[in-house]
Amino acid sequence: MFHPEALEPIVAFLRGIGMQVVYGDAAHGGFLPGVNIQAGALHVDPETLLGPGDLLHEAGHIIVLPRRYWPSLGRDVQADIDTILADQTARDGSPDPILTRAARQGEFMSQAWSYAVVQNLGLPQECLFFPGSYRCSGYEGTHPMLAWIEQGTHSGLINLAQADFTGYAGMFAFMGDNGLAPFPQMAKWTLD
Is 43 a member of any domain? Predict the structure, then answer.
């Protein structure tokens, strides 16, 4: 595992914001090795987890939704979010902007949110952005996703700001002012 020393601080953080994290065999069969989502709970197997940042990233997919939806999330978070959005839209006649953002930008929001958590915990970004993570390998120097975030051009930044997790930053700084400190400082870690 890349940066195993980061696992316990990440688990403690996730539990501290109200996420259920369970160690054991239920982690198998998830989207990423060593981590799985079942009924909104994160299941982790440290023996097969590639890096603790993968656990954090999967948590990021959950946090883009209000807590009331967390129990509806499983292994295929994108499909689950799409189903929730379709059901809600059919009932109300118009798509919920929070659910729409989660469906369309959840991957990028999760990446940027995870970066902010790692920064907040004082852990090395390499526990999140390691060789092969985010389907990036064969690069030289900085991981491409890490570079994108640090350059301020990653679309997760604006989506987190629009959801009032953080203030506008990077190339998106001129697009609004929600009164919050700029990314990577976070005003909140979850939607209520």
Answer: yes
